[in-house]
Design brief:
The protein is of the alpha/beta class. The strands form 3 sheets. Strands 5-4-3-2-1-9-10-11 form an 8-stranded mixed sheet, with helices on one face. Helix 3 packs across helix 4 and helix 7 crosses helix 8. The chain is globular. About 40% of the residues are buried.
Length: about 300
């Protein structure tokens, strides 16, 4: 049951992080209008099951007036609201409080701030700390998103007991595929027989971007809500008949490769790495379901 809507308010960002799975950056477009935000919220209200709305990106604070207006609309409609940011704006604790006080007044219940080495130098780390400290001083609920560098550890699961696997929190799709996979241990593609990160059959949340793509996983769309309403898309969504989700549910990336007879390498870092490579190979065949192209680094 769909309970969460995540606005990709913009694909524009102050950083181009190596681990970014939507290829955000300073020169990337795709930003909501206020009218579009209202349309999504109206559809979320029509569904009757959505409880939580997040504003993220990219970097939503780059469009601060738009974000605040969107939060006001969401709160007026009765939704709980959270925000995800890299806190580039938190140049000091007092200044960070200026940015966060309106969100506190609007009843935002979660601020998630990226606080790891992927987001730049010591100055970037400092802004994250300032943002977190400011939120705490305001008694605004705050979480730190800290993704570690890829780490190699040993599997304890059969049948690959003792085989090296990669941990650390990085999701190997998007820019991470080209930036972070080199030198990491890989496994045979036939081992990747399930989707381990997303609830494709009954998604609890979807990401919606300004292009109208309703994504159950970054780059896997169930349709475009500017063409078909979100409530209609959710009512008609059948994961098993979806050309991408269906094979993934049946047998993971390995089944996706077999079903469409895709030429591919013999080994990959993990399921997401293999799945992303396959989807990129299929993007021209299923443009409606593998969207937007920008999430694949193609635009």
């Amino acid at each position: 049951m769909l309970t969460g809507i995540h606005f990709l308010l913009t694909y524009t960002c102050t950083y181009e992080c190596d681990h970014c799975f939507v290829y955000s950056g300073p020169f990337v477009g795709g930003t909501f209008t206020l009218k579009q935000i209202k349309e999504v919220l109206d559809e979320a209200d029509r569904l009757g099951t959505v409880k939580m709305v997040y504003f993220e990106g990219g970097e939503p604070f780059l469009f601060y007036p738009l974000m605040v207006a969107g939060i006001k609309l969401a709160r007026a409609a009765g939704f709980q609201v959270g925000v995800v940011s890299n806190a580039y704006w938190a140049t000091s604790v007092p200044d960070a409080k200026l940015w966060l006080e309106p969100l506190k007044e609007l009843g935002v219940i979660d601020i998630s701030i990226s606080d790891d080495s992927f987001h730049g130098d010591d100055e970037a780390t400092a802004t994250a700390k300032h943002g977190i400290n400011a939120a705490r001083k305001l008694q605004l609920p705050v979480d730190s998103i800290c993704i570690e560098e890829p780490q190699v550890k040993t599997s304890v699961k059969e049948p690959a007991k003792g085989e090296p696997i990669v941990g650390g929190g990085v999701t190997f799709k998007g820019r991470a595929v080209e930036k972070l996979t080199e030198g990491l241990p890989t496994r045979n593609w036939e081992q990747f027989t399930e989707c381990v990160r997303e609830e494709l059959r009954d998604p609890g949340r979807v990401h919606v971007d300004a292009y109208g793509n309703v994504q159950v996983c970054q780059g896997i769309s169930i349709g475009n809500m500017w063409e078909t309403s979100l409530s209609q898309l959710m009512a008609s969504y059948d994961a098993d008949s979806h050309p991408i989700c269906g094979p993934l549910l049946k047998g993971g990336p390995a089944e996706l490769a077999r079903q469409y007879d895709i030429k591919h390498d013999t080994e990959y870092v993990d399921e997401c790495h293999f799945c992303f490579a396959l989807r990129k190979a299929l993007i021209d065949r299923f443009p409606q379901y593998l969207a937007p192209r920008q999430v694949y680094g193609l635009e």
